[in-house]
From TrEMBL:
Biological processes per GO annotation: glutathione metabolic process
Every Hydantoinase A/oxoprolinase domain range: 232-521
Limits of the Hydantoinase/oxoprolinase N-terminal domain: 10-212
GO-annotated cellular components: cytosol
The family this protein is said to belong to: Belongs to the oxoprolinase family.
Lineage: Eukaryota, Metazoa, Chordata, Craniata, Vertebrata
Molecular function in Gene Ontology: 5-oxoprolinase (ATP-hydrolyzing) activity
Hydantoinase B/oxoprolinase domain location: 725-1229
Record protein name field: 5-oxoprolinase, ATP-hydrolysing
Source superkingdom: Eukaryota
Domain spans labelled Acetophenone carboxylase-like C-terminal: 536-701
Length: 1264
C-alpha cells in the first residue's frame, strides 16, 4: 500500500467536542481543519462535512450537503473516533446477554470485589453491560498430576492438559437462547471458564447463536485469548455491547458518500496505535481510537533515532489530560480500566488525569467550599479562565464559540468579575488580625494554575519512575488545545530542559493517523517453560502466527512493506508479574529460540524495572504474540520553512507571572521564520493553540516549522513561613509525591509476591515529633498505626537515634498491627541539627516470619510468640551497615517455642527489608531536596499547616454533628455497642464539645482480652477511628496527624482493644477492626453495618499455600442501597481470578455468586453477601477466620441482615468448603420503600475519569 497520487487523502480525529481534519492534497500541500463534532443544524456528520468542505474549497466545485459526496477524488480515509468510548460512558450500547459457566452468573458483578473509592460509604460502581445472564452447565478444568479426584480423559491444548468434567448441553442452551431472542436481545457475549486455552465449547455456542439469529456474537476465546476470566469477561461484554454501535455509526458514515465508500480505502485507529480496515473495527479495540492517534503523532515527529532521548506526550484537552511515554517503542498495557470497565486487550499506555483547560476552579478549606459560576457562559470558572485573567490568553485571537448561541468572544469582563468575587471569598475566609495583606485576583489565578500544574506533574513522575526512568531526562512533547499554556511550567517542575510543539499540535491526533501503520495482531496462550527443550515448539507456533499475520496483511494489499515483531509474555515461575517482551536488539543464538534471545531481553528489562533478577528461577511463557505492520508509505515530511529575516511581534501585551506583570511579545506562528529565536516572556499564536513562552525560556522555530523551547531554571523565589494558601496545596502535593515515589521504589526492588504484586505496603512521611504528614497509598489498617510506631521509637530510643540508623519494628505495643507487617523507619537528619528533622517509614506485609503455621496468620494462636518473629526497636541498619546476621537470627528465633518454626522464607524477608531500606533512602533524599529548595523552617511550617488543615476539617465535621444532635435530642453525647461472635462487647461513648469541635472517644466497658487472637492493638483502633473520621468528613482531606488532634481516645488496658504484650493479635487486625468501625458508625448514625468481616480463608500443604479474603454485603445508608459482593471498610483486597486459582492451586472453584436476599431490608436495602464453594483436589490444611456468624450486622431503622454458618466438611480429597458471607444492614423503614428517590444518572466519566497504568497501580494498592 503506497500513497495515492492525484487524489485527496484524509486523516480525521472525531473527538467528543471537536473533529480535527488533516488533508493531503493532490499537489502535495497539506491542510488542517477543525469543526464541531456535533452541529445538527448545519450537518449530520462532522467527518463527512470536513471532507466535503476541503473538496469544495480546493476544487472549486459544489459538493451539496444534502447529497452523498462524490468519492472519485478521494484516495484514502483514516479515522479515529470516540464513538465506542462515548457509548461506554453513557451506557448507550446494544442490549446484550451474557452466557457463562454455571455457578458464575454474578462473577462480573463481583469482579475483583474491591471498591473504587476507599472512603465513599456509598459504593458507586458501574453496572454490568449485559441485561440477562444464561448459566451453562459445562465445565473444563486443568489437569493436575497430583489430583486425587476421579480422572477424566485428558485433552491437549496450547501447552495445557485439560479434562472435560461436564459436556456442553446444546439443547438446553438453545432453549435459553431462544428465550433471550424473544425478549428482543440480539447481542451475545460468551464467557466459559478456561476457554482461553480450549475453545470448543464457546465455538459450539457461537455457531448455535448465529444460526438462531443473533446479530452480534462475541466469544471470549476469540476477542482476547488470555488467562483470567474476569477481565476477559469484561472485554467480551464490551465487544458485544459496543460493536453493534460502531457498525451503526459506520453505516451512517458510509451513507454520506456515493457507493458507500466501496472503492475507497477506509481505515480506523485501534487502541494499540495501529490502523485496521473499517469492517474489522470492533468495540473491544476501539476505546482509545482517538487518543492513540496523538501518541503515534508525537512519537514519529518528536523522537530522534539519533539522540534516542525519550519523550513524554502531554495532551491537555478540555476536561482531562493524557500523558504517555515513547522511547523508540510504543508502550502497551494489556489490561486497563475505562469508565469502570476493565478491558483485556492491547492498548497504548495512555494515562488520563482529571485536569484540563475546562477543569473547574474552586476553593475549599476543611468543611468550606466556594464555587463561582460564570453565568454568561453557563458554567463555572475554569483553568482557561485563570489563564485569561493573567493575560495569557488574548480574546481577540480566540475563536468565538461562547455564549448561548456559541458565537460570542471569550469575555474577559465576565471572567474578572467572578474572579473578584472568588478572591473576596478567599480573603474573607483567611482574614486574621495581624495577617499579611490580602491576595490579589492575579495571585489567586496564578495559584490555581500552579496547583493544576502540580496535579499534572504527579502522574508524569509516577509513569516514568515506575519503570526506573529519570523524569528529567525526557523531552516534553506538548499538543492539544490547552497544553501550550502550561508546557514550560510543567517541564520546569519536572526538571526537563526541552519542550517540543509540532506545527500541527492542535490537530496532532489527526496527523498521527496519517503517519500510522496498518497493524494486524494475533495472540495465543502458552504454558511452556522457556528452555532448550521447548524451543522447537515455540519456533513452530511463532511461525504459524507470523504466517497468519502476513497472510492477512497481504490480503489487504501489502506486499513487500510488511514487518513483524514477536513478543513473549514472560514471568518468573511462582510469580504473577509478567512482562510482554520483544527480542528486538537481542538476536537469536544457540541457546535461544529462533525469534530472538528472549531470556536476555527479559532479564535486562526486569532488572531495569525492578532492580534485580532471580537467576535460579525458571522463566515461563504465558502467551505468544505477533504484531505485523504494513508500512503505509506516508512519511513525516519536514518541509523547510523558507521564510527568512527577523519577525516582529504583532502586538505587545502584559502577562502576570511570579514577579508580577511583565511586558510580553505576541507572535503569529505562521509569520515566524526558520531559526528565529523568541525570548520569554512571549506568546505564540496559531489557529488552534496558544503557546506561552515563560520568563527564562527561549523558543526557536525549527526547519520544519515546529517550536522547540529551551526551558531555563526558575529564579529562586523566597518563601516565608507565613501561610500561603497556594503553597499549602502545592506542598500537600509534594509531600504526597514523596510518599508515592517511596512506594514505587519499594515495589520495584522488593521480591515477594505480597509486596511486589499484591502491593501490600504503605509508605509515609512524618514530622520531627513522629506525627503523620502524608501517607500513600491508603491501606486502611495502616492509616493511624504507623504514626504510633514512629512515636514509640522516638520515646524509646531518644538520643540513641543516629544518622545512618534504620529501625525495624512490628510489636503491637510499639504501634504494630500484626506481626507480618514489618515497619522500617529512617530518621532524616540535617546538618547543624542534632535531632531528626523528619522521619520516613515503610510498612510491608511479609509472607512468612515464622510461627505455628505457614504464612504467620494462624487461626488458633493464643500467644504472640506463636504468630512469628517479634521486633520492638531493632536497629536494622547501624551506621549505614545492614545488620544481616542479627536480623537473620531474630527471624529464626520463633523456632525456640513449642510447635513453632522460624521464618520459612528468609531470602524473601531479607530482600524485602533491603527494599524497604532503599525506599526510605529515596524518601529521605526527596525530603532533603525539598528542604534545599525552600529551607527547613518553611518546609516544617507547611508540614504544620497541612496537619492543621486536616484538623480543621474534622473539627468542622464534629461541630456540625453536635449542632444537629443538640437540636434533635438536646444531648452532645452518643454511645453504641456491638458484640464479637464470642459475646465480647465493644462499647463506645462519645462526648462532643460543640464550641471546640473536639470529642472524647471512650471505649470503657469493652470486654477483656480474649484467649484467642481477636485482640486488637491500640494502633488498630486508631486506624479504624481515622478511617471513620475521613468517611464522615466527606471530602478529600490529607490523612495525617491533624485528623486525630481534636480527638481524645480512652481505651481500658487489658481489654480486647488494648491487650497485654504477649496476647495473640492476628485476628484483631482482620476481624476486630471491622467491629470497631461498625460501633463508631452506629454511634453517629452514619449508615447500617456492612458485613463486618474479612472472611479470611487459607489452605495449604507442604508444597504450597494460599490466602484470600472474601467479599460480602455493604451497609445501606441515607439515600443509597448497599453494594452486593464487595469488600468494605478496613479491607479492600482483590480476590484471585478463578482461572488463576485453579491453574496454580489444587482446588476447583465450583461457585462464586451473590447470596440472594442476604442483605437487610429497609427503605434502602443492604447489599447481599456471596457464596463461594471450593472443591479440593488433594489433601490440604484449611484455616478459617470469620466473624458475624452469630451476631448479625445491625440495620438503622430497618431489618437486620440474615446470616449463615460456614459449612464444615472433611477436607481430604473430594472435600468441599462452602462459604456463605454476611450481607449488609438495611436503612430506613421498609414500608417507605414504595417512594424511593431516583438516583440521578451521571455520565460515568464524572465518576470514573482516570485511566492508565498509574491509575491501575493506585487502584491495585487501594485493593490490598
Amino acid at each position: 500500500m503506497t500513497e495515492t497520487k492525484g487524489k485527496f487523502d484524509f486523516a480525521i480525529d472525531r473527538g467528543g467536542t471537536f473533529t480535527d481534519v488533516f488533508a493531503r492534497l493532490p499537489d502535495g500541500r497539506e491542510r488542517v481543519l477543525k469543526l464541531l463534532s456535533w452541529d445538527p443544524q448545519n450537518y449530520k456528520d462532522a467527518p463527512t462535512e470536513g471532507i466535503r468542505r476541503v473538496l469544495e474549497e480546493e476544487t472549486g466545485k459544489v459538493f451539496p450537503r444534502d447529497k452523498p459526496v462524490d468519492t472519485s477524488l478521494i484516495g484514502w480515509i483514516r479515522m479515529g473516533t470516540t464513538v465506542a468510548t462515548n457509548a461506554l460512558l453513557e451506557r448507550e450500547g446494544e442490549r446484550t446477554a451474557l452466557l457463562v459457566t454455571k455457578g458464575f452468573k454474578d462473577l462480573l458483578h463481583i469482579g475483583t470485589q474491591a471498591r473504587p473509592k476507599l472512603f465513599d460509604l456509598e459504593v458507586s460502581m458501574p453496572e454490568v453491560l449485559y441485561e440477562e445472564v444464561i448459566e451453562v452447565d459445562e465445565r473444563i478444568v486443568l489437569r493436575q498430576d497430583s489430583c486425587q479426584l476421579p480422572r477424566k480423559d485428558p485433552k491437549r491444548s496450547t501447552g495445557d492438559s485439560l479434562e472435560v468434567w461436564r459436556e456442553l448441553d446444546l439443547e438446553r442452551v438453545e432453549k435459553d437462547l431462544r428465550g433471550v431472542l424473544s425478549r428482543g436481545i440480539t447481542s451475545l457475549a460468551v464467557l466459559l471458564l478456561h476457554s482461553y486455552t480450549w475453545s470448543e465449547h464457546e465455538k459450539a455456542v457461537g455457531s448455535l447463536a448465529r444460526r438462531l439469529g443473533f446479530t452480534q456474537v462475541s466469544l471470549s476465546s476469540e476477542v482476547m485469548p488470555m488467562v483470567r476470566a474476569v477481565p476477559r469477561g469484561y472485554t467480551v461484554c464490551a465487544d458485544a455491547y459496543l460493536t453493534p454501535k460502531i457498525r451503526q455509526y459506520l453505516k451512517g458514515f458510509t451513507s454520506g458518500f456515493k457507493g458507500g465508500l466501496k472503492d475507497v480505502d477506509v481505515l480506523f485507529m485501534q487502541s494499540d496505535g495501529g490502523l485496521t480496515p473499517m469492517e474489522q473495527f470492533c468495540g473491544s479495540r476501539a476505546i482509545l481510537s482517538g487518543p492513540a492517534g496523538g501518541v503515534v503523532g508525537y512519537a514519529i515527529t518528536s523522537y530522534s533515532e539519533m539522540e534516542k532521548k525519550p519523550v513524554i506526550g502531554f495532551d491537555m484537552g478540555g476536561t482531562s489530560t493524557d500523558v504517555s511515554r515513547y522511547a523508540g517503542q510504543y508502550e502497551h498495557v494489556f489490561e486497563a480500566t475505562t469508565a469502570g470497565v476493565t478491558l483485556q486487550a492491547p492498548q497504548l499506555d495512555i494515562n488520563t488525569v482529571a485536569a484540563g483547560g475546562g477543569s473547574r476552579l474552586f476553593f475549599r478549606s476543611a468543611g468550606h467550599r466556594f464555587d463561582t459560576c460564570t453565568l454568561a457562559r453557563g458554567g463555572p470558572l475554569t483553568v482557561t479562565d485563570a489563564n485569561l485573567a493573567l493575560g495569557r490568553l488574548l480574546p481577540s485571537f480566540f475563536p468565538k464559540i461562547f455564549g448561548p448561541g456559541e458565537n460570542e468572544p471569550l469575555s474577559l469582563e465576565e471572567t474578572m468579575k467572578h474572579f473578584h468575587r472568588l478572591t473576596q471569598e478567599i480573603n474573607h475566609f483567611f482574614t486574621v488580625p495581624g495577617s499579611k495583606s490580602e491576595m490579589s485576583v492575579e495571585e489567586v489565578a496564578i495559584g490555581f494554575i500552579r496547583v493544576a500544574n502540580e496535579a499534572m506533574c504527579r502522574p508524569i513522575r509516577a509513569l516514568t519512575q515506575a519503570k526506573g526512568h529519570d523524569t528529567s531526562q525526557h523531552v516534553l512533547a506538548c499538543f492539544g488545545g490547552a497544553g501550550g499554556q502550561h508546557a514550560c511550567a510543567i517541564a520546569r517542575a519536572l526538571g526537563m530542559k526541552t519542550v517540543f510543539i509540532h506545527k500541527y499540535s492542535g490537530v496532532l491526533s489527526a496527523y498521527g493517523l496519517a503517519l500510522a501503520d496498518v497493524v494486524e495482531e494475533v495472540q495465543e496462550p502458552c504454558s511452556l517453560q522457556y528452555e532448550q527443550r521447548s524451543f522447537s515448539q515455540l519456533n513452530h507456533r511463532v511461525d504459524l502466527l507470523t504466517q497468519r499475520c502476513c497472510d492477512t496483511l497481504r490480503a489487504r494489499g501489502f506486499t513487500r512493506s510488511i514487518t513483524t515483531e514477536v513478543f513473549f509474555h514472560l514471568r518468573y515461575e511462582g510469580t504473577d508479574c509478567a512482562l510482554m517482551v520483544s527480542a528486538s536488539g537481542y538476536p537469536g543464538n544457540a541457546q535461544s529460540c529462533r525469534a530472538g534471545d528472549f531470556r536476555s531481553a527479559f532479564t535486562k528489562r526486569y532488572l531495569k524495572e525492578f532492580g534485580f533478577t532471580i537467576p535460579d528461577r525458571a522463566i515461563m511463557v504465558d502467551d505468544i504474540r505477533v504484531r505485523g505492520s504494513g508500512k503505509s508509505g506516508i512519511q513525516s515530511a519536514c518541509k523547510p520553512n523558507l521564510k527568512h529575516g527577523h519577525a516582529k511581534p504583532v502586538t505587545m501585551t502584559r502577562c502576570y507571572f511570579e514577579d508580577g506583570y511583565l511586558d510580553t511579545s505576541v507572535y503569529l506562528w505562521e509569520e515566524l521564520p526558520h531559526g528565529h529565536v523568541v525570548q520569554g516572556p512571549a506568546i505564540i499564536i496559531d489557529k488552534n493553540s496558544t503557546i506561552l513562552v515563560e520568563p527564562c525560556c527561549e523558543a526557536r522555530l525549527t526547519e520544519g516549522g515546529d517550536v522547540c523551547i529551551a526551558v531555563g531554571s526558575d529564579p529562586h523565589c523566597a518563601l516565608g513561613t507565613e501561610l500561603n494558601t497556594v503553597q499549602l496545596s502545592i506542598f500537600s502535593h509534594r509531600f504526597m509525591s514523596i510518599a508515592e515515589q517511596m512506594g514505587r521504589v519499594l515495589q520495584r526492588t522488593s521480591i515477594s509476591t505480597n509486596i511486589k504484586e499484591r502491593l501490600d505496603f504503605s509508605c509515609a512521611v512524618f514530622g520531627p515529633d513522629g506525627g503523620l504528614v502524608s501517607n500513600a497509598p491508603h491501606i486502611p489498617v495502616h492509616l493511624g498505626a504507623m504514626q504510633e510506631t514512629v512515636q514509640y521509637q522516638i520515646r524509646s530510643l531518644g538520643n540513641n537515634l543516629k544518622e545512618g540508623d534504620v529501625i525495624l519494628s512490628n510489636h503491637p505495643c510499639a504501634g504494630g498491627s500484626h506481626l507480618p507487617d514489618l515497619t522500617v523507619i529512617t530518621p532524616v537528619f540535617r546538618k547543624g541539627v542534632s535531632s531528626p528533622v523528619f522521619f520516613v517509614a515503610s510498612r510491608g506485609h511479609h509472607a512468612d516470619i515464622g510461627g505455628i503455621t505457614p504464612g504467620s496468620m494462624p487461626p488458633h494462636s493464643t500467644s504472640l510468640q506463636q504468630e512469628g518473629a517479634v521486633f520492638t526497636s531493632f536497629k536494622l541498619v547501624t551506621g549505614g551497615v545492614f545488620q544481616e546476621e542479627a536480623v537473620t537470627e531474630a527471624l529464626m528465633a520463633p523456632a525456640q517455642y513449642p510447635d513453632c518454626s522460624g521464618t520459612r522464607n528468609l531470602h524473601d524477608n531479607l530482600s524485602d527489608l533491603r527494599a524497604q531500606v532503599a525506599a526510605n533512602q529515596r524518601g529521605s533524599q526527596l525530603v532533603e531536596e525539598l528542604i534545599d529548595s525552600y529551607g527547613l523552617a518553611v518546609v516544617q511550617a507547611y508540614m504544620g499547616y497541612i496537619q492543621s488543615n486536616a484538623e480543621l476539617a474534622v473539627r468542622d465535621m464534629l461541630k456540625a454533628f453536635a449542632h444537629r444532635r443538640r437540636q434533635q435530642t438536646g444531648s452532645l453525647e452518643v454511645e453504641s455497642e456491638d458484640f464479637m461472635d464470642d459475646g465480647t462487647p465493644i462499647r463506645l461513648r462519645v462526648q462532643i464539645n460543640e464550641e471546640e469541635g473536639s470529642a472524647v472517644f471512650d471505649f470503657t466497658g469493652t470486654g477483656t482480652e480474649v484467649w484467642g487472637n481477636c485482640n486488637a492493638p491500640r494502633a488498630i483502633t486508631l486506624s479504624a477511628l481515622i478511617y471513620c473520621l475521613r468517611c464522615m468528613v466527606g471530602q478529600d482531606i490529607p490523612l495525617n496527624q491533624g485528623c486525630l488532634a481534636p480527638i481524645k481516645v480512652i481505651i481500658p488496658p487489658g481489654s480486647i482493644l488494648q491487650p497485654s504484650h504477649n496476647a495473640a493479635v492476628v485476628g484483631g487486625n482482620v476481624l476486630t477492626s471491622q467491629r470497631v468501625v461498625d460501633v463508631i458508625f452506629r454511634a453517629f448514625d452514619v449508615c447500617a453495618a456492612s458485613q463486618g468481616c474479612m472472611n479470611n480463608i487459607s489452605f495449604g500443604s507442604v508444597k504450597s499455600g494460599y490466602y484470600e479474603t472474601v467479599a460480602g454485603g455493604a451497609g445501606a445508608g441515607p439515600g443509597w442501597n448497599g453494594r452486593s459482593g464487595v469488600h468494605s471498610h478496613m479491607t479492600n483486597t482483590r480476590i484471585t481470578d478463578p482461572e488463576i486459582l485453579e491453574k496454580r492451586y489444587p482446588v476447583i472453584l465450583e461457585q462464586f455468586s451473590l447470596r440472594p436476599s442476604s442483605g437487610g431490608a429497609g427503605k434502602y436495602n443492604g447489599g447481599d453477601g456471596v457464596i463461594r464453594k471450593l472443591l479440593f483436589r488433594e489433601k490440604v490444611v484449611l484455616s478459617v477466620l470469620t466473624e458475624r456468624r452469630s451476631t448479625r450486622p445491625y440495620g438503622l431503622m430497618g431489618n437486620l441482615s440474615p446470616f449463615y454458618l460456614t459449612h464444615k466438611n472433611p477436607l481430604g480429597p473430594c472435600g468441599c468448603k462452602g462459604l456463605y458471607t454476611p450481607g449488609g444492614g438495611g436503612y430506613g423503614q421498609e414500608d417507605e420503600a414504595n417512594k424511593r428517590p431516583q438516583t440521578k444518572r451521571r455520565r460515568l466519566n464524572e465518576t470514573f475519569p482516570e485511566r492508565g497504568s498509574v491509575f491501575e497501580y493506585r487502584m491495585a494498592q487501594e485493593g490490598v
